[in-house]
Structures are given as structure tokens and as C-alpha cells.
Design goal:
- The complex is a heterodimer of chains A (341) and B (355).
- Chain A has 14 helices and no strands.
- Chain A is mainly α.
- In chain A, helix 2 packs parallel to helix 13.
- The longest helix of chain A has 35 residues.
- With 355 residues, chain B is mainly α.
- Helix content of chain B is 77%, strand content 0%.
- Chain B contains 14 helices and no strands.
- In chain B, helix 5 crosses helix 6.
- The longest helix of chain B has 36 residues.
- The chains are: A mainly alpha (341), B mainly alpha (355).
- The interface between A and B is large, with 53 and 52 residues.
Chain lengths: 341, 355
Amino acid sequence: MDLPAATAPAQRSPAARQTLLLGLGLCVLLLCLALSLALGSRSIPLSTVLDALVGRDTTSPDAQVVTGLRLPRTVLGLVVGAALGVAGAVAQGATRNPLAAPTTLGVNAGAGFAVVTAIYALHLTRPVEYVWFAVAGAGLAGCAAQAMARQAGDLDPTRLALGGTVLTAVLSSWTSAVMLASRRTLDEARFWLAGSLDARGFEVLTPVLPLLAVGLLLAFAVAPALNALALGDETAQALGVPVTRIRAAAGLAVVLLAAGAVAVAGPIAFVGLAAPHLVRLVLGRDHRLLVPGCLIGGPILLLAADVLGRLVVRPSELEVGIVTAFLGAPLLAVLARRAAR
Amino acid sequence: MTLTAPPTPPLLAHPAGARARRRRRTLLLCLLLCLLLALLTALIATALSTGQVTIPPLDALRALIGLGSAGDVLVVQEFRAPRVLAAVVAGAGLAVAGGLLQRLFRNPLASPDVVGVTGGASFGAVLLLALGASQLLVPLAALGGGLLAAGLLGAFAWRSRAAVARLVLVGLAVQAGLAAAVNLMIVRFPAELASSALQWTTGSLYGRTWLELRVGGSAIVVALAAVLLLNRRVAVLDLGDDSAGGLGLRPGPARLQLLLLAITLASLSAALTGPVGFVALVVPHLVRFLAGPPTPATLLLTALSGAALLLAADLTVLHLLPVHGLPVGAATATLGAPWLLVLMIRQGRTNRSTR
């Protein structure tokens, strides 16, 4: 074996290494996108998929499945995964808590409760109509979780996660109560609540795009300051970082991104928790890299889970939210072991 | 009913003062027990007499033993009594299981719903519903689910022993995984089944039958009796592992045995009512606040308070709220959550002040 060649990547400058890694990540993401377009509960030959994508074949049923179902589903996965991943990275950075994420903070449960209540009270039937209720519910729950965390002490991961869990427990039991009160609501909401990218189309995406854009901008803007926050509040203050304002901006970014994601796809568990951890393993702790990294890592996770859900129970499908919950629960257990050490 | 004095006499305290304190405590416990018994009787009478047809409380109590008009007897015995009994038995079971777990882990947050045991039980029950098996097997399935959750918890957190924070967080993870499984079944079910599964997972006393009670209820009573019998062991374990060993109790096996008992009790209760949230968490604290450190008498108080709390919550859901058909678990969660938060904040403060 040629030893100097094998050790060469380690000797490259950090910047080159990071570019390489980001490029690799992009390649993996492209692979996931391609798999998401090519694989599904219905077997479609690759040539037909390609024909449908470039517009050579628009009439055959297979082509319509590709352009009408798989393409929007893949794009949704890309956007939602990115939003969740970045939201998780910012939440973990701003709270200095490895367990912080939209799911563990109760944001998903808040959106779920708001949507179910809206379906019950206003007789909504289409995901496009849920969007704003999801945003409002997620926002309120996010604020409540932040207030509780501040009361219980910002620095303790257990307590923050517990606060979020309490919030989730209460909100989800209210959600069940509403669904039990009306069969129509139950039928309408149970699929949305499982978290799915299927059969939503592009139309759900348009109203939340501005939210997600603002959230992303905020996330990128606070990313450098999060590095200073990681050193402790006093040190950050001494370095000239306006701690309170940065925390508020980060909180707003998390709520906007998580709310937009929930509004599009329903409550999807653990992508926001897992993506930052995986990206951190690869890229290190610098938030200036971590946040863009999650922009790639989140969609990779979500799309991989979605494709998995289409393959494991063929010819049926598993909702992606259920797949991520099954994959994420052991991860949370492992993280919890480490965080509480 | 006679009461025994607390079993741990403070050896070094001033004898006269100690005796006076002990007498005061016995008096307090007696008083609390009487009060709770009266409250529980009043709640039972109210629950039996109110509903679509109102029956005067005394007539309702007489109808319970088969006296009075045939209509009253039918309504009380067939429709109201099973629900009331289910609330009493399951409330007692959950509260005692919670108290036992909190003592074994020496942590006020380690209740069966926080660490995922009742979630596991409802997973078992819902799985059984999904398979379309007999209702009689529900307690067994719930027990299996509860043990599964406990097993997962143990696999991830057992070796850490005292690290309760980790235990709670791992419990959270277990809960999340099981919730995903239940969610999967709810999505896959036809609508009628989904609705009854949802009822299970929120915790509800709706439509309990004598059949379920005979199986599940008697199992809970047996488990409660076992807790009472083994209570001395808990007291010995409270002294610490070294002292327990000195007193001839091997702490490892004893703790495991009691742990299994607590999990069984919680799972059986959840089989009867679904995982009604926060009863197991709140009641032991309330009792400790009112009656001081644990003794066999406070165990009895815990059981009675649990029963009274669940019954009161069910009455609230049935009659006091403007919306009908709410599951009782929604009410207990709403009441219990602020409690858990206060507890958390207080614990955080003491942690920080001792740091």
C-alpha cells in the first residue's frame, strides 16, 4: 500500500478538507434524491423515470407517478429535512443542550394540537388550509418551552428535555381528546399526525417558503455568535456578543423553521435531533460549518428514511414520521446516556 | 381500623419528645385516613348517583347491594359500578406503583408514566386490539408491554444505577419509540379500531365491563397486597445498600423484585384504564407532603388518594366540563403537568444551591 497517499487527506489544510466533506455530502444528497425519485412501492423502470423527468414521457401512468407524486415528495423531503436539520442545530447551539430539537421541545406537539383543533372546529379538509394553524401552534409551544427552560435553568439538558416532554404529554393528550370527540377529525388528522411527505403536492410548500427563508437567514446570521455562546454566557458577553438578543433570534429561527416543516409534512420526529449530531461527527463543532452542513444532512436523513419506509412494507408504505421515530428513539437513548453522564 | 406507629423509632432522640412526636404523627395519620375514606365514599356515592338518570345517593348505595327498584339496580350495578370500581382500583394501583418506583430510584420524577412503563402497557393493549384477540387477554398484553418497556429501559440504563437523569431520559426515548409503534397502528387501523385504540392510549374509563374488572381488578388487588407485604423490604432498602446487607437483605435481588412488582402494578392498572397520566407521579408527593416519610400507613393513604384522585378526575370529565366524551387522561395530564414542572424547577434550585 502506498502510505504517503493514504495519509495525504489529513495533511491538507482544514478549509480544503471541509470543502471536500461538503462536496461529499452533496453527492450523498444527490444520491438520496435520485433514490427517492427512482424507488417506491410501485416498480418503475429507470428509463421511464428519466423520460418522465426530462419531459419526454408525460402520459403513461408510470410517468405520472414520477412527476405527480415522487417529484413533489422528493422536493418536500429536501425542504423539510433542511428546515428540521438547521432548526435542530440552532436549538442545540443556542441552548448548549445536545438534546434540544423541535420534537423534544414540544414544538411538534403544539403544531399537532393546533391543527387538530382547527380541523375539529373549522372543518378543514386540505393540508394547505392547516398550514397557518401549524405555524401558530408551533410558535406558541416553542415560546412555552423556552419560558419553562429558563425557569428550570438553561444549562441542564435533562430538565429542558423534561419540560418539553411535559408539554408534549399535555398537548398530545388534548389532541387525542379532540380526535376522540369527533370521528371526522380522527379520520382527517391521523394521517397528518403520523408525519408524511406523500400526496401533499407543491401547493403546501408555497405559503411556508417565506417563513422558511426568513428562518434560514436568521439561522445563518446567528451561527457565528453560537460559537461564542458555546464558551458560556459570561465569556460570550466579554467577547462582545449580545447574548440575549442572539438567543431570541435563534429561538425565532427555530420556531419558524420547525413550524414551516410541521406545516408541510406533519410532526416528524428526531430528524432535528439527529442531523446536527451526525453532521457534528463529520464536520466538527464550528457552527459556521454545522448550520450549512445540516442543510445537507437533514434532507439526507429524511429522504433516506422516506425511501426506507417505501421499501420495507411493499406494496404498502410506512409514513416517514413513523420511520424516523423508530430510528430516532434508540439514538435518543444513546444520546441521553452520554448527556447525563 | 387500628394503626401501627411508624416503624423507625429515632433511637438517639430525647425519649419524651420522641414519644410526643410519634403520638402527634399517629393522630395526623388517623385523621388523614378518616378524611380520605369519607372523601372517597362521598365521591363513590356521587359517581353512582349522577348520570343521565339521577338516583339519590342513599338509594344508589342501596342499589349497589341489590336493594331498591329494579331500574336503579340495573343502572347502578351494570353501568356505573364497573366504571367507579375501575377508577378506584386503577387509581390506587397507579399511585402505589408510582410511590414504590420513586422510593426505589430515590427520585421524585421516576414514575411509571415518565419512564415509559405505562406507555409500554398501552402498546401491548393496542397491539392486542390490532390482532383482534379477546378482551380478557388485555391485562396480560399490557403486562407484557410494560415489561418490554422496562426491559428496554434496563438494557439502556441499568448499569448506570444511580444516574437518574439518564434513566428518565432513556425512559423518554423508550416512550417515544413505543408511541411511534402505537401511532403506526392507529394510522393502519380502520376508523372504529383507531378510535378505541386512541381511547386506550389517552387513558379512559369509558365502557368498562364487569368481565374486564374481574380479571384485571383482582390482579391489581393481589399486587397491592403484595406491595403491602413486602413494604418492610422497601424500608430496609431505604437505609442504603450497605445497611440492607447488614440486616440480611441482599439489595440487588430485593430491588429487582420490588421493581418488577411496581412495573406489574402499573401495567395492570394501565390495562384497566389506559395510561392515565400523572396520577402515579403526583399522589406520592401529595401524601409525603401531608403525612411525612413513608410508613405502612402512608402506603394506605397513597392508595386511597390515588383512588379518590382518579375518581374525582373522572367525575370532572363526566359532569363538570362543557365538552362531553373527554378521556380522563386528558384531565389528569392537564392537572398534573404544572405539578411536574414545579417539581422540576424546585429540584433544579436545590441542585444549583448544593453545587
